[in-house]
Each structure stands twice: as C-alpha cells, then as structure tokens.
Amino acid sequence: MKLAILGAGESGVGAALLAQAKGYDVFVSDFGVIAEKFRMQLADAGIPFEEGTHSLEQIYEANEIIKSPGIPDTVPVIQGALERNIPVISEIEFAGRYASGKFICITGTNGKTTTTLLTYHLLKSAGLKVALGGNVGESLAAKVLEDAYDYYVVELSSFQLDNMYQFRAHIAILLNITPDHLDRYQYSMDKYAAAKFRIAQNMTSADYFLFNQDDAEIQKYRSAHSVAGTQLPFGLKESKGLALNYNGSLISASFPENRAKIDTSASPLIGQHNQYNTMAAVGAALLVGIAPTEIEKALGTFQNAEHRLQPVGEIDGIRFINDSKATNVEAVWYALDGINQPIVWVVGGKDKGNDYSPLFPLVQEKVKAIVCLGVDNSKILASFSEICPKIEETQDVNEAVRLAKGFAEAGDVVILSPACASFDLFKNYEHRGRAFAEAVTAINTTGV
C-alpha cells in the first residue's frame, strides 16, 4: 500500500512513522518549509519527503492520502485526489485503525483544550495508562505507535473530524457550538454543526455521548444527528434527565448504575465556562471507573494550559491573571463573569469586528478600571469610557501592568483578557501572555 502524507508537522510526521511501522510505502509532501525537528525525524527514519512543492504524480500514485487538518478540501491537490477517487483521511482516522485502547474524544468551539487536559489529568492521576493527543498539539499516531496505553484522550477540531469516517470514540464530549471557521463550511452553520456531531459517529450502545444540554446550538441540531451511544446530557440549569449537574461547588452525577457527588471546591478553574468543562471531564472520569475521592483530589492539582485564566503572580494582595487566549468577546464575558472580586481589566489588540455591548453589564458591575494595551484603542475607549471613567491606554506591556497595579488595591484582580488578536504588538497570543507574566514578575521582583 502506498500512502501519501500532506503536511510535515506534528500530525503528519507522527502518521508517517506509524505508517512505516505498519508496512506502508510512505511519501511525505509539504508545500511549505519543514521544521528542522521534523525534517530530522523523517530523515532518521528513512522516509522520503519533499518541501516547498507538491509532486502531484508521486502523490497521486498513493492508495490513500492523509492530510494535515489545516489543508482545506478545496485546494487543488486535494481536489485532484478526490477526482481520482483516492481516499483522503485525517491522521486521527489512520491512528484509530491501529490503537488497542479506547478513545475519549472532546470537541466544541470553545473549551476543548482545557477539558482535554483536565480529563487526561484525572485519568493520569488515578494511575491509568493514558495518552494525550490530537489538536492539543501531540500526534495521536505517534502515541498509538508506542502501543502502551489503555486510553487515549483526544482533542478534536472540526477540521480533524471532517476527514474521519470509521473512527469510533468510546466516550465523546460535545461542549458547545458557536459560529467559527465558517469560511471552511461555505458560511453554513448547518455544515459546521454537522462536522462537530461527527464526534459521535459509529458509536454503539456500549459507548457514551456527553453533551452540554444548556447550549442552544447543540439542542437545535441534535434531532438532525442520530447517536447510537448512551446519551448523557450535562448542564448548570437543573432539568429532568440530566446526567451531570453543577450546583455551587458540587457536581451530581446520575449515570446508569453510577450515582456520585463530586466536590470541586479545590479546583483552580474559575468561570461558568469552566464549570461545563469540569462537568464533562468528571463525567468521563466516572465512566472509566475512577472513584469520586480520587477525582476530587486530582481536581485540586490540575494546572491548565498557559494563557487560559492562568494565575501569574500576586503583588501587595493584588492577583494577576493571564487570559491572553481570550481573543473574542464571548471568552472575555466568561472570564469577567467568573471573577467575584473587583477587577482591573487589561484589554485591546487588533480588533476583530467586536461588538462589546454584551460586556457592558459586567463591566459596570465588576470593573473598577480599564487599561488598553493596543495600537488603536479608539473602539474600546468609545465603548467603555462612560461606563468605566478610569481608563488609560498604552502600547507597552510593562507600563500596562504598572498602570493596572496603580488602579488596584489588595483583594482586587488584574486580568489580561484582551478580546482582540495580538498581532498589533505581539507575534501571537502566547507571546502577549508571556510578556504580561514577565512584566508582573519584574514588578514583583523590583517593586517598580
């Protein structure tokens, strides 16, 4: 069998190594420049590869093609493959053929990474043989190649789900559906939602589908997508038939043959959106047989990915939180809603056509001062100047932290939650978040 792999990043190289181990004749093609790390891996394995071009004749000799999720189906190389009836699949689909363990899969427009990392942490802390993979940044195929795991916790984007056909999750989690990446779906919410529901394809009655019952879009599209797995809805709003309900700091689980209560008070996660994420992860942990006491203990030791409501220091009783990943208004709403102390809000960057009006009530109620960190802050100033008279602007992250500290007092929270892209002043949201954290550390060290 000849296999062509398009894209030589984490997923492509992982797929190439697994395919080689399974006896495939592998060829890797990347239209861009291959990172040195991945070029070395391919060379060391003796796998033929090319970069900066696609040799179509060689690619179309393949019996099957694996493509990077970043490559749309509309590009000429993929269109040519489909015209020749060459199957095009994802790395996840390919890895699923060779895994002996069970898959716990998470998707949703928001919250995927936090839920995936928390689920993995709960299983790992309980001593299970568990791997982490998928959209979280690690190749599932490379993990399958290790053949050392009973469970695989996999974050799945809609792009990965698009090219999955026979793959079957044992536990599938659907967190939410909100408009995103619609340019890949002919600007159709129906098509985008259909991609998300693919996470539950091929299930049997022995499998489980956990979904957010409070999410309006999930409810809207549920009837159009049949799911053979046992359906377990979770939610904050008390409702008949909920499998998981979060009330105060307590999660109540009512599964078939399994009822439990989980105290989440030790969890460092804040905000309503993280209550949904925690319910989903706790549900998966219970389904694989982890005891409530073990789950409660592990919740207290969880550390989320950087730049997602990440505590980065405390100065004179003022807590500093890095939420640089919050690049849209909805994410900021969840951040502000989840903080109960007075807030100094650091906001700004490259505007994405934001409508800030959903934030007005929260800002009026909770925010005592605003620091704008961006090249053009005119829209933020126009939106919030009357609601929050204490407002300053800067293009320097160190000055932003100094200004915020000056507005705050002991017991307050300073949060970087930008609602905007980072590209006006920073390389990406990670760069912005690290710069913010470093500025906090510098002031904490020098006092200036």
UniProtKB/TrEMBL annotation:
Residues 307-420 form the Mur ligase C-terminal domain. Keywords: ATP-binding, Cell cycle, Cell division, Cell shape, Cell wall biogenesis/degradation, Cytoplasm, Ligase, Nucleotide-binding, Peptidoglycan synthesis. SUPFAM superfamilies: MurCD N-terminal domain, MurD-like peptide ligases, catalytic domain, MurD-like peptide ligases, peptide-binding domain. Its main location: cytoplasm. Residues 106-285 form the Mur ligase central domain. It catalyses: UDP-N-acetyl-alpha-D-muramoyl-L-alanine + D-glutamate + ATP = UDP-N-acetyl-alpha-D-muramoyl-L-alanyl-D-glutamate + ADP + phosphate + H(+). Signal peptide: none annotated. ATP binds at residues 108-114. Its EC number is 6.3.2.9. Cell wall formation. Catalyzes the addition of glutamate to the nucleotide precursor UDP-N-acetylmuramoyl-L-alanine (UMA). This is UDP-N-acetylmuramoylalanine--D-glutamate ligase. It comes from Rufibacter roseus. The gene is murD.
